[in-house]
Amino acid sequence: MKENSEKPKRLRLEGTILDVETVGEFDERFSPWDERHYADVQPTILGYLTDDVLVQYCAEGFDEIGKLKEEMSHTIPRLESPLFALNTRFERHILKKAVN
Length: 100
Prior knowledge:
By secondary structure, the protein is an alpha+beta fold. It has one domain (2-99). It is 23% helix and 30% strand. It has two helices and five strands. A five-stranded mixed sheet has the order 1-4-3-2-5, covered by helices on one side. The longest helix is centred in the C-terminal third of the chain and has 12 residues, at 88-99.
């Protein structure tokens, strides 16, 4: 699994901004508010910005998605709250499924 980390200019941010990239298809039989809508969607990249650090974890191929999920289960609980995301509903469902 590839990890990238860099130190951007100092931000005045309290908390953590999350971003998750995925592969897979949505199950359109269910609404986006229903976790079953995301049953076949798998995370491929976890990125976050907190304090003065930008970190990205990238699964390099389908075989590393399990490693990424394991990294997510260790990393997410340790991040500074509050957590922010652009598409909160999507991110929440993907993270919940990956971390459990």
